[in-house]
Amino acid sequence: MVRKILPTALCVLMSAAAYAQKDTSSVTVQVITDKDNKKVIVDKDGEVWQKTTRRKNITTSWFGGVDLGFSNFVDNTNYASAGAQAFAPNANASWFDLRNGKSVNVNIWLISQKVNLINHNVNLKYALGLELNNYRFKNPIRFNSNLPYVEWDNTEGRSYSKNKLAADYVTFPLMLNFDFGKHTGGYSVTKKHKKGLEISAKKTKEWGFSAGISAGYLYSARNKTITSDEGKQKLKDNLNLNPWKLSYVAEVNLGVISLYGSYAMKGMFKDGLDITPYNVGIRF
């Protein structure tokens, strides 16, 4: 399963790396002399840009980011064990094969903060958000609220157009951030002016990486199926999923976008199956 997702992940990495080579953005401005005989910078709309000399030690972003990626898992289950057979009678590893391109992860960040620790090059980052995971299965397996939690559907003539397990969490990541970008101040708008000579000013973008852990609480889980004879069916239940999800998390900041990844510290189910979830994708 890991091998199937590697080509996709490599394509994402190569595309993002190529984009990251553009580490500056430009804006057309004017240099003028104000009434006090001081030089000021004005953009094409007549707004004065003032160079900042001090960066904030704590920066806050509300509704400032969305992640788009893939959900997958590593299956280390011993299907010959009594626990696995009680959970899913007659099951084997192929039962839980995923449609990798359709098993997606979306994270929505409600609030995030960055705290300066050492010269703005080492920072503490934390956030609060929603982690949405959709695991799309290839096979006609059905989840139940009680044992056995998973069964193979042998109904004659029935075909599946959708079969997914959704697991959604409120999540809180805590990471140590290393920022290698050059911070010479930047520019901010203060007031308006009209005329002058045009030049080009540049603002650097951040780049670096972060790593840490996250804690997530399961607030919604469901098995959704669409079949030829039943149509859409949805079972809302905890489906024996662990209520807490602790994960290792990391991101690589490439300027406008970042690459992110997470890997859970333990299996997603309370017992029976040893399935450890992970996510990879792009953070905007």
From TrEMBL:
Residues 1-20 form the signal peptide. Keywords: Signal. This is Outer membrane protein beta-barrel domain-containing protein. It comes from Niabella yanshanensis.
